């Protein structure tokens, strides 16, 4: 089977040169051929390359899906080395979905296999990933230990593997950015850039994103906006929707929209792709493959406070009951657009005003047989029991008219707009996925400055 062997060699070349679209094309064909010929070792190699390509392309739905089949073949036909490589990508998948503890556990298993086989490439890359994960959990001391260990093994064993050191450094840079270690970040950034192949790659975008985070934490707004703009340009060019969305969220969270010229156009682009269902994991706060099912509840709880999550727990059985009994239920995501208030009065008054807005919203809708919860200070979810959409639309119009006429403490019109995304339980999707779909539609309505999308 010279063809399969040659294709595997070619995939290795493509991966070293970050040619991910070509990897997807070649690996998909080679995988099918290897499975037909029961060449499972080569099939597992194809799965490994596909997982890496989908991850770096930001195609996280495809990444999640391929991991399901990867796991099945690995468990049935893979040896220890195959399991080591599988745990590497399982850890990365959980990292993408922000399932931090499962990501750490998978990374630790990959590291254990790496030590067993003296595969320090795997050891170092996963120590970098663990530094990232522990940082996300706020455990900076453990992140520091992982970073130091990774750098020790890299200096000792990876002199001839610059790509592995570069990938490890990305995770360590995330730790340094969030720990606001500017000097260490600058030194490691310099070394990492020297190891990178090509220009404006996915990893250049990650590095720029992390530097933007660091500068934002140092309150250097213009410099941070410059780096986040650079990251946004890279992710847009690569059509990496996931990381483009992450970058937009950092820009919004740090109130830099006025400093990023492409913010509006990128927001519209990602809004359109969100409407088409292309935004896979970060925005939805969920992963969608069967492999991730045990972690859905845990992950969903990570994105809201314990009190708000309890409210989601109350809403989920209601949604399930309506669905199982073939009763129509509307799932509506809502969002207060308070950018004018933020610009004029600042963050503190914006949040105070949003508490008032939420009370106003509840008073309007409490006459209807529905439930309301929040997922952030200015957005949330409504479950509405209506016979048809016309009644929903009437309620949304009433809400819009009410909020447009609200006055601030100085009796000026508030300028608040509200946007909705509307979906139903008719497709029998789980509650979490209905929330995801509604949020994506709401995000699209916001980009188009429309009252709602459905």
From TrEMBL:
InterPro entries: TPR-like_helical_dom_sf. It comes from the Bacteria. This is Uncharacterized protein. It comes from Metalysinibacillus saudimassiliensis.
């Amino acid at each position: 089977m010279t063809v399969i062997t040659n294709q595997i060699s070619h995939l290795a070349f493509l991966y070293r040169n970050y040619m991910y679209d070509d990897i997807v094309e070649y690996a998909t064909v080679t995988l099918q051929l290897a499975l037909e010929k029961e060449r499972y070792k080569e099939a597992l190699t194809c799965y490994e390359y596909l997982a890496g390509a989908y991850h770096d392309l930001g195609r996280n739905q495809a990444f999640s899906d391929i991991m399901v089949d990867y796991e099945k073949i690995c468990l049935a036909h893979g040896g220890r080395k195959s399991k080591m490589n599988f745990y590497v990508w399982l850890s990365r998948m959980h990292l993408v979905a922000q399932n931090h503890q499962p990501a750490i556990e998978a990374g630790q298993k990959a590291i254990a296999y790496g030590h067993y086989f003296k595969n320090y490439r795997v050891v170092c890359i996963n120590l970098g990933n663990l530094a990232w994960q522990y940082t996300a959990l706020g455990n900076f001391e453990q992140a520091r230990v992982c970073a130091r260990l990774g750098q020790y093994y890299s200096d000792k064993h990876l002199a001839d593997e610059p790509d592995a050191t570069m990938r490890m450094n990305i995770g360590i840079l995330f730790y340094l950015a969030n720990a606001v270690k500017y000097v260490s970040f600058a030194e490691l950034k310099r070394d990492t850039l020297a190891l990178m192949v090509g220009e404006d790659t996915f990893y250049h975008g990650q590095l720029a994103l992390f530097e933007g985070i660091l500068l934002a934490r140092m309150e250097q707004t213009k410099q941070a906006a410059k780096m986040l703009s650079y990251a946004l340009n890279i992710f847009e060019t690569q059509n990496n929707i996931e990381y483009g969305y992450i970058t937009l969220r950092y820009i919004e969270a740090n109130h830099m929209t006025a400093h990023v010229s492409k913010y509006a156009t990128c927001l519209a682009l990602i809004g359109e792709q969100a409407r088409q269902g292309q935004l896979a994991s970060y925005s939805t706060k969920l992963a969608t493959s069967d492999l991730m099912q045990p972690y859905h509840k845990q992950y969903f709880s990570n994105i809201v406070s314990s009190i708000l999550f309890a409210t989601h727990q109350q809403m989920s059985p209601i949604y399930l009951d309506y669905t199982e009994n073939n009763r129509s239920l509307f799932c509506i995501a809502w969002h207060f657009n308070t950018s004018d208030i933020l610009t004029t009065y600042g963050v503190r008054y914006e949040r105070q005003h949003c508490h008032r807005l939420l009370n106003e919203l509840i008073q309007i809708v409490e006459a209807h047989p529905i439930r309301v919860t929040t997922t952030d200070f200015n957005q949330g979810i409504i479950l509405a029991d209506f016979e048809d959409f016309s009644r929903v639309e009437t309620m949304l119009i009433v809400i819009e008219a009410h909020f447009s006429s609200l006055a601030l403490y100085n009796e000026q019109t508030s300028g608040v707009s509200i946007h909705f995304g509307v979906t139903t339980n008719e497709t029998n999707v789980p509650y979490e996925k209905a929330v995801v779909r509604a949020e994506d539609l709401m995000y699209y309505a916001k980009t188009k400055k429309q009252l709602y999308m459905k």
